[in-house]
């Protein structure tokens, strides 16, 4: 469906009070057109209707007239540069941004992420994590490993029990 038709549906959804549907349509459009700042702005407006300042700040992060409280909420939710880089969901070089402010913001986030990762990164190969992310993901990895170990031990117990029953 063409961009214009989808935006018309978004407007109709908002007029009818179907905010979740409008949000989903806009999320799809931003996913399809990640470098369109106008779509990001529209999505931020919908998140304001939800009362979600962090997500509004996420989608307004590349706009000079962004709200400082929303920006702070976004930065608090996405604390590390790799998390911010993934959250911004930009594709391609910063030069694709249509404003100087957006290009500067994108370059600053990418540079901070490169510093955090200890190697150069770009927008098309957003890193999966950072040193700062390792505390939480380390515990999650431990829980996953412990769960796998319990599952393997249970399987072995059933298998050994079956072998014993077979030869009795």
Q: Which characteristics define this entry?
A:
single chain; 168 residues; mainly alpha; 8 helices; Serine Threonine Protein Phosphatase 5, Tetratricopeptide repeat; 2 domains; elongated; transmembrane helix; 71% helix
Report on this structure.
24% of the residues are buried. The protein contains eight helices and no strands. The protein is 71% helix and 0% strand. The chain is elongated, with a radius of gyration of 22 Å. The protein starts with a helix and ends with a helix. The protein has two domains: 3-131, Serine Threonine Protein Phosphatase 5, Tetratricopeptide repeat (Alpha Horseshoe); 133-168. Residues 130-136 have low confidence and may be disordered. It has helices at residues 3-15, 19-32, 37-50, 53-60, 68-77, 81-88, 100-117, 134-167. The protein is mainly alpha-helical and 168 residues long.
């Amino acid at each position: 469906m063409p961009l214009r038709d989808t935006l018309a549906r978004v407007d109709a959804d908002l007029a009818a009070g179907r905010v979740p549907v409008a949000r989903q349509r806009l999320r799809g459009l931003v996913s399809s057109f990640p470098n369109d700042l106008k779509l990001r702005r529209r999505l931020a407006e919908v998140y304001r209707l939800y009362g979600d300042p962090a997500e509004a700040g996420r989608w307004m992060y590349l706009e000079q007239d962004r709200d400082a409280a929303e920006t702070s909420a976004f930065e608090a939710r996405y604390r590390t540069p790799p998390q911010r880089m993934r959250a911004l969901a930009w594709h391609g070089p910063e030069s694709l941004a249509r404003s100087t402010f957006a290009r500067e913001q994108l370059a600053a986030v990418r540079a901070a992420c490169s510093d955090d990762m200890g190697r150069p990164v770009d927008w098309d190969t957003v890193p999966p994590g950072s040193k700062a992310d390792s505390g939480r993901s380390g515990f999650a990895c431990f829980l996953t490993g412990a769960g796998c170990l319990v599952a393997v031990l249970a399987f072995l117990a059933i298998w050994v029990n079956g072998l014993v029953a077979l030869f009795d």
